[in-house]
Every structure is written in C-alpha cells, then in structure tokens.
Amino acid sequence: MSVVDEVPWIKEHIALYKSDPERAHYFVIPGTDGKGRPSLLLTTIGAKTGQPRDITLFYGKSGGNFIIVASLGGAPVHPAWYKNLVAHPTAEIQVGKDHHIVKARDAKGEERTALLQVMVDQVMDRYNEYESMTQGFREMPIVVLEPQG
Asked: How far apart, in whole angstroms, are the C-alpha atoms of residue 67 and residue 72?
C-alpha cells in the first residue's frame, strides 16, 4: 500500500491538482497551521512497475530549479516517489497550470545544506525536525528538479 492510499488528504490533493490546479497549487495540510504551501504534482515512472505514479509535494525554488525533500515525515525509509526518481530520473511536474519535463538529481555537500535551508525558510520549518529524525537511518534526500529544454 502506498502513502497515497494510506493518507486520504494526499489522494484528495492529487485529484484537486488534476481538476483545479490553480487552487491546488497553494495547499493547506488538514489539521495544521492553516498556512498554504506551494505544491507541485510529480509524475514519476514506477521503479518496479514501469507505470506512471502521481504524488503531490511541497516545493521551493533555487534559480530556475524546483527543490523537493524526500522526508516522508522523518520516516527511516525513503518514499516510493524518491525510489522511482532514482530508477528513472526524468519525470514530469505540474506547477499550477504549467507542465515541465525535469531531470532529478540529489543535492550533495554544501549544496544540500544550502537547499535544505531554502526549504526550511521558504516552505516549512519542520524539515529541520524531519532531518534530525532520519539521522542514524538515512540521509534525507534534497532533490533538485532541473527543467529540460
């Protein structure tokens, strides 16, 4: 079972993105601080299935690139969407009404540190908490999505 099936608001957010992308772009997580955060719809190719897989994620910007965090709420394992990107780094994103083909790569070293801070400052300070929760289990990937063409 995937996180999309396990967390009802994620499935609802994906459906909203497909029907009303402008409304879905700034999303408020139910039961949180009520702050809308910028989100995108990521379509990956399944690592095992080879089938398209959709997930909505919060994002930040650095230059012309989109930044996403494979936090899975601080879980000790990587999210499925991240494993899909490792297997197939070319993906599609929808940001509001705009569609982009992107190539994913992990930020490393100083770039990773700087981009994590961008995500904390621009999107959600809980990423610091998630980072501390994953220590000892995994390095929480900070993924750069570079638009192609």
From this structure: 15
- In this prediction the pTM is 0.91
Exposure class string for 106-123: b at 16+ Cβ within 10 A, else e: bbeeeebeebbebbbeeb
pLDDT tens-digit map of 8-20:
888 999 999 999 9
- The domains located in the chain, with CATH, are 3-147 (2.30.110.10)
121-126: which pairs have CB atoms within 8 A and are 24 or more residues apart? 122/38, 122/60, 122/61, 123/37, 123/38, 123/58, 123/59, 123/60, 124/37, 124/58
Token code pair at residue 12? 């609802």
Residues in the chain: 149
Type of residue numbered 41: L
